[in-house]
Amino acid sequence: MSDLKYERSGHVPVIDMNKSDEELSVEFYEALTTVGFACICNSGIWELAKDYGRKANSFFHLPYEEKKKYSKPNSYDCHYGWLANGRVQLEETAPAPDYKEVFHTNRITEGDRTLAPPIIDSEESRKLRAKFEEQASRILYLLGVAMKLKDPYQMVKAHSFTEKKNPSNQSVVWYPKVDKSLLVPGQLRCGEHSDFGSLTLLYSDAPGLQVMSRELGEYVDAGFIEGGIYVNIGDMLQMWSGDVLIANKHRVLIPEEQYLNQDRMSVIFFAQPDNDAVIETLDGSGKYPPVIADQWLTGRFLATYDQ
Description:
Layout: E1 8-9, E2 12-16, H1 21-34, E3 37-41, H2 46-56, H3 64-68, E4 81-83, E5 101-105, H4 123-146, H5 154-157, E6 169-175, E7 190-193, E8 199-204, E9 209-213, E10 218-221, E11 229-233, H6 235-240, E12 250-252, E13 264-271, E14 278-279, E15 291-292, H7 293-304
Helix pairs in contact: 1-4, 2-4
């Protein structure tokens, strides 16, 4: 998209990454302190994610026993591997788990064929991850500028994306065609939740994302723009910012009747601080007590995934 034609994608502000850092810092601050979401264009991510997602899709159509070889280990501190439909429940009070399958990868899985097959851990996936990391770092810097931090790179320095001590995940999410006979009333493709870490960058091949409108007090469609990547704040970054940045709740509904026979693919980058990063409120207010990133994230994962 060379010419940005939209100011908003549904409820979400659209930001053109070709603008100057000065302009972008203002726009990101406005979007992420009010809506908690932005849709970025001209990021260099969309085409890479589209190509990778199409190829990774074939993994989810393999026989169950083949996929099971790569199942997420039953360990509280392991954040990689395949999760079958029914193993993730992002909304704790939901009547049933999310209707989806997920494959998480991180620096530990790279090159290890016992942890991830080549269709998931590929040259394409690594190029995509590098672009996700590049844009996540840029956005963290822009927020540091907007928040007038003494060192605008302070948050960037806490995310050593290329090192194994950084637990950031690149995840492929497959929402299969919906068999109504298997649905539980009130079940969602992805339950209501806010993300755990710093930033999330999301590619999807179809609409379906809804975000909570803080003005209306209800869910509204996030919209869908070809070429757009959605960015949102996680709980840890909201805490880190002293509640200046907003980790907004979002979800993916079971589609309407005419779309039940269509699957949906997303590729998501969950940017998280290094395991040993000490998270203290950036304004020095002490609004939240200091916490070690790994300890805090582990508690959230334990509450979410069937171990």
